[in-house]
Amino acid sequence: MTVSDGGPYVNGGAGATESSTLPMDDGEIHVCQDGPRDAPALLLLHGSASSTRSWDPMVPLLTGSHRVIRIDLLGHGRSAKPADRSYALSDQARRAGAALDRLGVEHAIVVGHSSGGAVATALAEQRPDLVTALAFINTGPSLDAFIAPESAAFGPSQWPPTDEQLRQFASTGFSRAGHRIPQELLDEVRAMTYHTLTTTMQATRHYLEQQALPDRLTVLGKPLLVIFGEDDRRWRSSSASDYRAVPGAKVELLPGLGHSPLLEDPPRTALSLLAFTAIHAVRAD
Questions:
Q1: Is the bond preceding 160 in cis, omega lying within 30 degrees of 0?
Q2: 18: closest CA among 37, 4, 29, 38?
Q3: Is 248 helix (H, G, I), strand (E, B) or coil?
């Protein structure tokens, strides 16, 4: 099923966002596409407790040169939220790869925000033929870099949470106190189940416990860009230097930005990303 997303963003001549629901063995996966279909593919993967909507401000800045594809990972956004399926990062990556196959994409640069970078890594491990390069935005390299919250956000008895609880939960995702968090993002966190919220976060922790990302990436040998808001309140920004162990990795710190540069300063984030993709993008045949 394909429908118009009805959003305000119009890409470079290809019309409004195309929103699709792809049936998978584990449940339906929601996909958004923008930009010319014959342009190099750019897959954007959101972080935990987020969705395709977190990329909305970035999309118009990328569609001039890319076919931009966004996926709601299982358990998030407008994708299915089953209680009896695996949320391991390897399975999330497998579904993302299957979605690209369904869309006829043979090569893509994969961009991940926060834990989305770990999913991107898992996808590159599984499908090195599909992933031509990787870009991370505030993806912690290991659990040593994680800044633990002062208190638990909420328990199962408090689900679904109120707007105020959600704003408190999301506040560390931004560098400045009082930053306006889009209402649609709050609504999509509330649409998750408590099971999918906690299980997907545990899956990221397990993946990083198994092996740190720089070690995984060194073996893969893929071009790598790491963008990190210098004022991140969830992952120590100094940990971005750990990625320098990956041969050829490019690491950029963005002063004045926190955990979500894609929402806090989309133009500055897009500038760094587009400079990287201009070198490594592969045009569709």
A1: yes
A2: 4
A3: coil
**Torsional sign, CA 233, 210, 72, 255:** positive
The DSSP output letter for 16 is B
C-alpha 2/C-alpha 249 separation (Å) is: 38
Tell which residue, 76, 88, 85, has the closest CA to residue 29: 76
For 49-82, how does the pLDDT look when each residue is reduced to its tens digit (9 = 90+)? 999 999 999 999 999 999 999 999 999 999 999 9
Which two structure tokens, joined as six digits, stand for 197?
């919220």
Residue 176: both structure tokens together: 């400045």
Q: Which of 94, 53, 211, 48 is nearest to 142 (CA)?
A: 211
The answer for residues whose C-beta is within 8 angstroms of residue 201's C-beta and 6 or more apart is 48, 49, 115
pTM: 0.93
Q: Rounded to a whole number, what is the largest CA-CA distance in the chain?
A: 52
pLDDT in tens, 204-258: 999 999 999 999 999 999 999 999 999 999 999 999 999 999 999 999 999 999 9
Place of tokens 């040593």: 144
Nearest to 44 by CA among 89, 109, 105: 109
Distance separating alpha carbons of residues 237 and 219, to the nearest angstrom: 23
Q: What angle do CA 176, 61, 67 make, to 5 degrees?
A: 130
Q: For residues 203 and 205, give the distance between their C-alpha atoms in angstroms, rounded to a whole number.
A: 5
Give the pLDDT band (50/70/90) at residue 283. Answer: confident
What span, in angstroms and rounded, lies between the C-alpha atoms of 74 and 285?
30
- Rounded CA separation 39/35 (Å): 8
